[in-house]
Amino acid sequence: TVERTAAAKVYLESFFGKIHSGSAGGAGRGKRRQQLEEDLRKLPVGEEQKGVMRKEWAEGERGRLRARREKISASDFETLKIIGHGAFGMVKLVREKSTGTPYAMKMLRKRDMLVRRQEMHVRAERDLLADVVGSSEWIVRLVYAFQDDEFLYFVMEFMAGGDLLGLLIRKDIFEEEFARYYAAEMVLCIEEAHRHGVCHRDVKPDNFLFDSQGHIRLSDFGLATDFHWAHDSTYYDDLRQATITSVTSGAAGASTGASAGGVLVWRQRHRKQVAYSVVGTQNYTAPEVLKGVGYGKGCDWWSLGVIVFEMLFGYPPFCSKSRQNTKVKIINWRQTLRFPSKPAVSVAAVDFISSLCCDKEDRLGCNLAQARSANRLPNVPPEQFSDARQIKEHPWFAGIDWAAMEQGRGRPPFVPELADAVDTTHFEEVTEEAVYKFWKEANEGYDGQEEDEEVLQLRKRLAFVGFSFRGEEVCRCGVGVRWWLLSVRCPKLKGLKRKDRTKLSEDNFAGSPSRPATASS
């Protein structure tokens, strides 16, 4: 009863939280209808054709609702190969049986997530990825999310080119132009996450994935936060304890702990967008994170500086034989950040890294107040300001055509060689036996014996209520409606390549601030 009550509270407060923020289903449909009307006003067609488009859109919305009600399971996919693993799960290359489309399926073990109090992280990852579907070209696309008795599943687009870490291992050191191009794409990835209110907190080479054309996208939001109460571990701990206390004391109607005043009180108490938990991969972690003094999205820009250093010199600037020594080096970065004389890099590159690997008050993308007071950014309203603006304007990026890159017209210096759509050349092969052995070692000491097994089984069934997501219909909604509207006029347009889609959309939607969502090839 206690666990069911706690799960119901989490679900209901999350649901009403989405209504409060305008991201619930009804509100989402309203926004999509508003976007439809804005796009229709820009189309050079008559009212009769617009009426046809509105009917098509309405039918698409009904189909979207029907699709959301259809259950999906692991049996709907054929496993081809294991392409990655971690402490809580593994990633498989799968093929959807009904369509033949290859996807990457991330599987997380519920037991490990619950025993190690990680449910808020997986909930945050699901919510954040679902929120950006259809509106982001720089974040790996979530297609489905579902669960069974033992696992949580994220089905995502398959990024066949592997990750940036693999390319670093193969090339060792990047030429400066090569590094500059991918640093620019990483800026756009991080900017996209920040634009959606997300601090990634684990920016590292492993989490930048290449598509088949050589463009990169940001992945793995398992440690990300949007500073929302629903993604705060303390909230869940307090809620469960409050529920247990109220039941065991016989005061079920009383308000205690996190339930006192409900979600609005929690929001008020935690509304300042500063995090304190120590997360991320040590080599790339900002000093303010390690010190636990409170940090914001600027910690992601520090991580970018470390990655640029690694691309240019072949190793992270604060690497050491032990995690503790690495931590000491990062905290004392003034004494430990040193640039080798070889290979030779430009003064601008050194200055760029130094402008990111520094105190958060001085870091590019963080010192916005100083930039405004110095009249360097005089006419930009705060709500329209991107924290990446300062970074894009750094001299090291002088040759970057940001507009072209944002529209997908950049020419990557690396294009992965792929035999077919399911080529896994750029991924390390892993056996299932090796994965289970790794899980056992990684979770040793977290066997959950302190928690009643019956309660744990109940939590596995109830802790992730509302987790399911189905995103394949999103191409008819939101920003993606631009391309859909064009394809309604001429169905053959659906087969156009990415660069041609972009050019056509620019011609038909001149002045539109958003580019069309495109599918990864």
From TrEMBL:
Q: Do you know which CDD domains this protein is assigned to? A: STKc_ROCK_NDR_like
**The enzyme's E.C. designation:** 2.7.11.1
- Output the InterPro entries linked to this UniProt entry: AGC-kinase_C (IPR000961), Kinase-like_dom_sf (IPR011009), Prot_kinase_dom (IPR000719), Protein_kinase_ATP_BS (IPR017441), Rho-assoc_Ser/Thr_Kinase (IPR050839), Ser/Thr_kinase_AS (IPR008271)
Listed transmembrane segments:
none
Q: Which GO terms describe its biological process?
A: cytoskeleton organization
Q: Does the keyword Kinase apply?
A: yes
What is catalysed by this protein? L-seryl-[protein] + ATP = O-phospho-L-seryl-[protein] + ADP + H(+); L-threonyl-[protein] + ATP = O-phospho-L-threonyl-[protein] + ADP + H(+)
List GO molecular-function terms, semicolon-separated. ATP binding; protein serine/threonine kinase activity
Give the source's domain of life in one word: Eukaryota
Q: Which UniProt keywords apply?
A: ATP-binding, Kinase, Nucleotide-binding, Phosphoprotein, Serine/threonine-protein kinase, Transferase
Q: Which Gene3D superfamilies match?
A: Phosphorylase Kinase, domain 1 (3.30.200.20), Transferase(Phosphotransferase) domain 1 (1.10.510.10)
Boundaries of each AGC-kinase C-terminal domain copy?
398-479
Q: Where is the Protein kinase domain?
A: 77-397
Residues the record lists as binding ATP: 106
- Which family is this protein grouped under? Belongs to the protein kinase superfamily. STE Ser/Thr protein kinase family. COT1 subfamily.
Write down what this protein is called: non-specific serine/threonine protein kinase
What organism, scientifically named, is this protein from? Answer: Gonapodya prolifera (strain JEL478) (Monoblepharis prolifera)
